[in-house]
Specification:
7-stranded antiparallel β-sheet; mainly beta; 4-stranded antiparallel β-sheet; globular; 346 residues
């Protein structure tokens, strides 16, 4: 988060049974790389920095098991610590970095939502809520509220917030199926995309809606259709969203029923939306889309000044990194061949 370090995983082995994984942290220029975890049984697949940049949480799969293990490396040379397990397992860091909000076993009868306190001993504090079908929970930017999807007293699914100190729940919006959501990074606005399909492994196919978390919540705008991913700009004035589109000429193996994506930018709260360009994403970017609400917490395609967007899409020469300007009549610029791009936070 401070922009000074990069975490990455190296894999080796000739077949899935022989894979070895090594987790490294280096300076942002690639120097001073050091190994913080290595295993031939636990394979890291998802990395999530603590807000203070001093520790790194990562999710691993264990060979011969479908369970996912959450571990924490503090980057001080001590051995990584096991925090939790579940299948699947999603989480959000509190802004203070002293705890996490865990959503384990999503969509299963034993699903749970809990605080995980990161003290000398790990303490799990379950929340008295009934989770609905969703993936990744989230803390508000100030850490005073959490957002999740829950079952109301009437048995309906709703996007909710919960006050950390009073435990009062506030219904933001009811929905059917599943939902992906994200707080604005700077205020109490909330963006979400509902989907009639409750299968967590498929992309959302609803409009992008923005509401203000006041009492009662205020609807600000709805835009697009078949929205399968979105990112708030760092300054909270815009949202970039991807809309799935079908053309008879196009063919793709990465987007399910869609042939390509359209990248739009909508201004908040004005609601003015602009189509920047259409593209076929790289396979690596397309694999993020079914889990975009978790990746929203850990990476961004926006530049720190909220002016540019980095996309990995196909050109005539193959997959490449493309940079687009969020406003103005400028053609997207191809940087170089590449399969995935994320921007530094600062």
């Amino acid at each position: 988060p401070d922009g000074n370090q990069i975490a990455y995983v190296s894999y080796s082995g000739s077949n899935p049974q022989d894979v070895e994984a090594h987790l490294y942290v280096s300076q942002s220029n690639g120097g001073d790389a050091r190994e913080v975890f290595a295993s031939d049984r636990m394979i890291p697949l998802f990395l999530y920095w603590a807000p203070d940049s001093n520790s790194l949480a990562f999710l691993s799969t264990q060979k011969g098991s479908n369970s996912q293990i959450l571990r924490l490396s503090k980057l001080d040379g001590t051995e990584s610590q096991v925090l939790d397990s579940g299948q699947p397992l999603f989480w959000s860091w509190a802004p203070s970095g002293k705890r996490m909000l865990i959503h384990g076993n999503a969509s299963r009868p034993d699903s749970r939502l809990a605080y995980l306190w990161l003290e000398d001993s790990i303490i799990e504090d379950g929340l008295p809520v009934h989770p609905a079908v969703f993936q990744a929970p989230e803390f508000s930017p100030d850490g005073n509220h959490i957002m999740f999807a829950g079952i109301t007293d009437d048995g309906e699914s709703a996007l909710m917030t919960l006050d950390r100190t009073t435990s009062l729940q506030n219904i933001i919006a009811k929905y059917e199926g599943t939902v992906s959501f994200q707080w604005s990074p700077v205020d109490d606005r909330i963006a979400f995309t509902p989907s009639q399909d409750a299968n967590l492994a498929t992309q959302g196919q609803g409009p992008l809606t923005v509401m203000s978390k006041q009492t009662p919540p205020k609807h600000l705008l709805s835009t697009g259709e078949n929205v399968i991913g979105f990112f708030w700009s760092p300054d909270g004035t815009k949202i970039a969203y991807f809309q799935g589109v079908v053309s008879q000429e196009g063919e793709t193996q990465t987007l399910g029923q869609f042939t390509h994506l359209e990248l739009h930018v909508v201004k908040i709260p004005q609601g003015e939306s602009e189509l920047l360009f259409s593209f076929v994403p790289s396979e690596q970017f397309a694999t993020l889309l079914p889990y975009i609400d978790q990746y929203q917490r850990t990476l961004t395609i926006w530049s720190p000044d909220s002016q540019y967007l980095a996309i990995s899409g196909y050109t005539q020469q193959g997959p490449a990194i493309v940079v687009a300007q969020a406003e103005g009549d400028f053609e997207p610029r191809v940087l170089e061949p590449g399969i995935l791009a994320v921007w530094s936070w600062k």
